[in-house]
Amino acid sequence: MFGLIGKMTATPGKREELIGLLLEGTEGMPGCLSYIVARDVKDENAIWITEVWDHKDSHAASLKLPAVQATIAKARPMIAGFSDGVTVEPVGGVGLPK
After folding, report:
1. Tens-digit pLDDT profile for residues 45-89
2. Strand, helix or coil for residue 9
3. How large is the C-alpha radius of gyration of the chain?
4. What is the DSSP string of 21-74?
5. How far apart are the first and last CA of the chain?
6. β-sheet with 46-53: strand ranges across
7. Under a CB-based contact definition with an 8 Å cutoff, are residues 42 and 51 in contact?
8. What pLDDT is recorded for position 77?
9. Which end of the chain lies in a sparser environment, N or C, as judged by fewer CB atoms within 10 Å?
10. Which of the two residues, 98 and 55, has the higher pLDDT score?
């Protein structure tokens, strides 16, 4: 498995709208085992995204999907920046294959 954990910062006042876009653009991504969007409780503009994929190539392919490209284009003006991103190798857990 292949995983990503990252922090995205929305432009002030746009976090909820950005969360909505991120959640609507997650359907139909082959190989995506988990895609979690969460509010940072200490930073009113920050969002944490945790992804688990069956393989690194599935994640790369998802970025080329028309629906994902459209979501990225809509979201870009609401994104102030990215930080704290890490790549991980998930080994299992609730909802993930063993």
Report:
1. 999 999 999 999 999 999 999 989 999 999 999 999 998 799 999
2. strand
3. 13
4. HHHHTTTT-TTEEEEEEEE-SS-TTEEEEEEEES-HHHHHHHTTSHHHHHHHHH
5. 10
6. 32-39, 46-53, 2-10, 79-88
7. no
8. 96
9. C
10. 55
Place 25 in a pLDDT band, splitting at 50, 70 and 90: low
For the cut 80, the answer to whether the pLDDT of residue 27 exceeds it is no
CATH topology of domain 2-88: Alpha-Beta Plaits (3.30.70)
* Domain coordinates in residue numbering, the chain: 2-88
| Residue found under tokens 């284009």 | 73
Is the Cβ–Cβ distance between 40 and 46 less than 8 Å?
yes
SS3 (DSSP) at 84: strand
Cβ distance 26 to 72 under 8 Å? no
How far is residue 31's CA from residue 34's CA, in Å, rounded to a whole number? 9
CA dihedral 42, 47, 53, 57 (to 10 degrees): -130
